[in-house]
User: Which sequence fits this backbone?
């Protein structure tokens, strides 16, 4: 009898896909946070600049 159990136990491809999805989610969060902080920092610097003048 042919044992094909090793095909079901090989999860290397699944692990790579999970890491890729996790990396994509982390990148979206990081980019969104940087854009938000950058926009707020720009507003603060503009406000300070206009109050100095």
Assistant:
């Amino acid at each position: 009898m042919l044992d094909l159990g090793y095909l079901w136990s090989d999860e290397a491809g699944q692990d790579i896909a999970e890491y890729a999805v996790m990396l994509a989610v982390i990148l979206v969060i990081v980019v969104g946070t940087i854009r938000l902080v950058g926009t707020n920092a720009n507003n603060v610097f503009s406000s300070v600049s206009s109050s100095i003048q």
Remarks:
- Helices lie at 5-9, 12-52.
- The two ends are 86 Å apart (CA to CA).
- The longest helix spans residues 12-52.
- The chain has a mean pLDDT of 82.
